[in-house]
Structures are given as structure tokens and as C-alpha cells.
Amino acid sequence: MLLKLINTEDCWAPVTIRTMAGIVMFAHGAQKLFGWFGGYGFEGTMKFMTEGAGLPALIAFLVIIGESIGSLMLVAGIATRFVAASQAIIMFGALKMHLGNGFFINWFGNQSGEGIEYHLLYIGMMFSLLISGAGKFSLDAFLRKRQAL
Question: Rounded distance, CA 43 to CA 146, Å?
């Protein structure tokens, strides 16, 4: 089971996808966990997600950890398939919350909120990583090679 989880193709495309996705998602996770980049921090985000959005506390906690720590795991390429699946699930939840705001990102401030285009792109990126694994220069590839010895 572990070998299937860390198995990866020896190619460059997943490196680009996981690095860029991890960097972008880390900013969102850092808002939620640390309050960086204008975010509410852990307590404020937990309050919003549990009281405002009605999520159970465990789910809210997993979203915060998945977006912050999970994004760093993507960049490092560790447990990439697991993290990609987790973040795809998070984005499906976010997509559901933003569905009423239309398709497009709110570039001009004339919508009630953000649309779903970012979420769809991110889900597609995560599905790609589910298929390929982490790619070159990843801890998954390093561990896989060590297991083969």
C-alpha cells in the first residue's frame, strides 16, 4: 500500500504542478492558520467555519491543516497522492460554497463573491497529481528508490 502511495513517474510536469499549486494554496492556508496575508488566523477561521459555515470542528481543523501543512507537503513531494486527494476534497467543498457566485473570479468586484473557476482549476491539478504522483525531485521519488534497493 505504501509503495502505491509514493509511486511516481520520473517526469517534470508533476513537479511544476505540485510546486505552483503548493505555493498558491500555502498562502490560503497561512491566512487560516497564522493570520498572514490578511487572514483571520486559526481561532478566527475556526469560528467562521464552525459558526458561520456550519462545519463540524474536526472538518474545519482538517481544512486548515490540509491547506497549510498539506501545501508544504505538496511542494516537498511527500505523500503527494494523499495530499492531492485531500486538497481535491477541500476544493469540492469550497466549490459548493462558491457555486452561487457564478463561474468567474470576482475581478471587478461586481459579484457577491468569488466564482468557481479557481476551484475547478485546482481540482484538475490535484487529479493530475493523483494520476502521476509527485514526479522528479520529490521525497516520494526518493523514498520509492530507497524501497527498491
Answer: 41
